[in-house]
Design a protein that fits this description.
Immunoglobulin-like, mainly beta, four-stranded antiparallel beta sheet, about 180 residues, five-stranded antiparallel beta sheet, about 10% helix
């Protein structure tokens, strides 16, 4: 009985190893293509937010680079995301330089808390990101907060509104690598 159990365990381990090796990509093959059928047209959602923008961060992934903006309210906020020829500061209209050949402007219909970012400077390092060349803050005025995302060219993007941790919400901008 003990020999039979040892045999079953050995056979199961060999089968698992064979399955892993057989399913692994071979040299010269590529990973499955990323599906990013989002397009480059403007995306918008109406509605003012009830909370403040309290944080932002970035995250590179296999198929796209991601900007995450956290709001203090669960209800989220409206937004407007689109490609623009130049980024302007909220409230003044002053042009802000952004690295990259194309700029996605993300305007969130919620004010930002004081100290969220310095206008016209990088919000976080984009080393290791494939698409983002720079993420900059363009200010908050009249309940609107704007970000500029520099990218190499007009690439597909999407905007999502999600639940965040501890009663917050997230506005997420994904820009595809291709």
């Amino acid at each position: 009985m003990r020999t039979q159990r040892l045999w079953k365990t050995t056979a199961a381990a060999a089968l698992a190893l064979f399955s892993t090796v057989a399913m692994a990509p071979t040299q010269g093959t590529t990973a499955p293509a990323c599906r990013t059928p989002w397009g480059t047209m403007p995306k918008a959602r109406p509605g003012m937010g009830r909370g403040l923008i309290v944080a932002q961060r970035g995250s590179p992934t296999r198929c796209y680079d991601r900007l995450i903006v956290q709001l203090s309210s669960q209800r989220g906020a409206g937004y407007d995301a689109r490609y623009v020829a130049r980024l302007t500061q909220e409230g003044t209209g002053r042009t802000i330089a952004v690295r990259g050949r194309a700029i996605v402007r993300l305007t969130i219909l919620a004010p930002a808390r004081a100290g969220i970012g310095v206008i016209g400077t990088d919000l976080f390092p984009v080393r290791g990101f494939q698409t983002f060349r720079e993420v900059t803050y363009a200010g908050t005025s009249r309940g609107r907060s704007t970000y500029g995302i520099g990218v190499p060219r007009g690439l597909p993007f999407r905007v999502l509104v999600m639940r965040g941790p501890a009663g917050t919400s997230l506005i997420v901008l994904d820009v595809a690598h291709q």
